[in-house]
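In this supplementary section we document a worked example of the pipeline. Step one takes a protein sequence of length 250 as its only input; no multiple sequence alignment statistics are reported here. Step two produces a three-dimensional model, which step three serialises into structure tokens for compact storage. The input and output of this example are shown verbatim.
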Amino acid sequence: MKVPMRISLVYGILLASVLLLAAVQIFAMRRLRALNEGTAGSGLSAAMTSLELMQDTELIAECAGRFFRQGDPEARKQIDVIRDSFQSDLQQVRTNIRSEAEGREIERISQFWQQFLENLWREQAIPQRREIPAVLAEDLDRLKIQARTVYQASLDSIEAQAEESRLIARRTERISWIFAAGVIVVGGLISLLIVRSVSLPLSSLAEGTRAMASGGPYYRLDTSRNDEIAQIAKDFNTIAERLKSAPRHE
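The serialised model returned by step three reads:
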């Protein structure tokens, strides 16, 4: 291979390696950006909606107490309004599920909610109540606990995504350092080989030239290579052969 081609090959390999490293960095940055945007968007929305579910359960418990203890018809209307809000929030958190654990907790609160609605419809038909029926009180307690559990599951999902972002960042940094070190080592070795493949023949050529200039013995260079230096060596050997066979003048 010609010397310029060897040098071009080395620089081509180094350039390709640098471009590949840049591509890896860009891919990792885009993935991190998408992951962070998803965490900041859906994660925050899910957490806020979970907080609203907790508030809704507190309001429903308050209104249910007023309705059953005092027979307040306005409290029953407020229960209907809060019920619609709760169901809307519940539907929203379902659209933002980001983990199996979060999905299981949301499914559980959905089941508790449906059971509460069924018991509320049945118990409100019984007249002359002066306290919240035990079954409804139990349903409300479970809803409150489960709403807090859903909120905690949302926070856990946010933390899991944040940890994934940190892992990707550390992995990308580690790969980048390893790749960069590999490029430096490989590039250095290839450059050393090319320098040696050029410097050694040139040293032999310089030694042969000095030998001819000093009138020393016949000197031949290695011509087994297939590049410009081998052609110079052939020309040198031809000149040396002619000088050897040329008649000497006393």
